[in-house]
Amino acid sequence: MEKEIIRGAEALMRSLMNEQVDTIFGYPGGSIMPVFDALYDHQEDFKQILVRHEQGALHAAQGYARSSGKVGVCIVTSGPGATNTLTGIADAMLDSTPVVLIAGQVMSSVLGTDFFQEVDLVGVTQPIAKWSYQIRRAEDIPWAISRAFYIARSGRPGPVVLDFCKNAQTSQVAYEPAKVDYIRSYVPYPKPNEKAIAEAAALINRSARPLVLVGQGVELANAHEELKNFIEKANLPVGRTLLGLSALPSDHPLNMGMLGMHGNLGPNVNTNNCDVLIAVGMRFSDRVTGLVSTYAKQAKVIHLDIDPSEINKNVHADIPVIGDCKETLPLITAQLENIDRKEWIDSFADYAAIEEEKAIRPAINPDGGPIRMGEVARRVSEATGNSAILVTDVGQNQMMSCRYFKFTKPHSVLTSGGLGTMGFGLPAAIGATFGAPDRTVCVFSGDGGLQMNIQEFGTIMEQGAPVKIILLNNNYLGNVRQWQEMFFNRRYSWTPMLNPDYNKIAEAYNIPSRTVSDRAELDDAIKEMLETEGAFLLHVAVMEEENIMPMTPPGASVNEMVFE
Asked: What is the distance between the alpha carbons of residues 120 and 118, in angstroms, rounded to a whole number?
């Protein structure tokens, strides 16, 4: 049978269909125009989402990927179109998000001549992507696409960049599908070591004060049931990282709260009191460890991770367990003993009581004064039955919403963890409405972060994306202002903000909105937001100089949290 002769751009379409791609985010331009011309003939095969800025395309693809468990896809042009995606690529790399970026490139015959809108995208992205490759020939398209998706989704996920020369898009090729499921020297799923499994189980069985730290690796592996079986069999208390918050339901009796600089007091302090620390799918970020030289020095460390490069990178592992935690957790669980650790588990309650009095109650049930960020987050969460997807921007809005939102379902937290990207929230929330169309998507943003990608209101308008936007407006770059207050003698340099009329902006994009500054109106406004079909902007005027507490100050040990 003769192979069909088609253009390279059409070969790309068919290769994407072979990977079961159903949604594409992007922005057209000269060097990628043959691909967008091919997309014109595939409007029934792909949801095609025109964003308003290429950074928005990448963040939307991230939101889609993390809410759906699939690979996010975006297509942009060369030069500035490609470089506008770099922040999103770096963000996806640090947060292990599977996305494939396809960027146009000038014809291979003029590479290196500084042709119009030419940028060495492979050279620029190699340090911040899992794989970067330039397609110069149409014959290479099926192989490159299959390899890209295999790399992006397998093992520890991450972003892949394909630099697509224009001549490869327009050349004729005898099309034949490709399937890449093996790459020499690439071992995405290491085989667990039986000796390490046995040693880990034995150490946990001997421990009196074990503590489990759960990261996003559990979510990426869909190992939620395996985690519950593991902790419940041996009565192991758990702290969760920012990206691992929905790996365990908020109300699980062994869930002791959030780790990190603005996490909960109990799991942070007891990190330096435990005798065995069991890290599952987390990378010991500096935001979790605080001063690493004093971090958990009294404890033996068991580190479960799929990526061998994470072992001993920041914290020494006495027992490394390399492999997919969906496989390694049950292997350890099978060898665990059921031990009553009531006294150790009860010790977390003492710290929780202190935090409740000093930080939580004032944040979610204040005795008057301006509206607080925490009470907005808690009320929105409760109004959704604690079942919504929480998307955040970066800053105080991020920490407050992550602290006080509650979770009952997996894959419910989309936030920029490693890179801390302001402007992430709005486009990521748009992507989440396509990745999980049956779920309510609530994005919390500050007045600084919202303006960084506010042009994506246009995408919401055009697509009818039902994003519930909660703007916590304190007229400051709040997180920077907090640091200036605490560590720079209240020298508020460049942090006060003069804000526009957000309701008028929303109106221009046909997005209903409501402003609330009176606490008595808050519940009714939240109800209106959730009952409104489609998108809604809830603009809440919150306390201007509120701080997120408790906090581990920079350079302090994880157990040295302060409340003022």
From this structure: 7
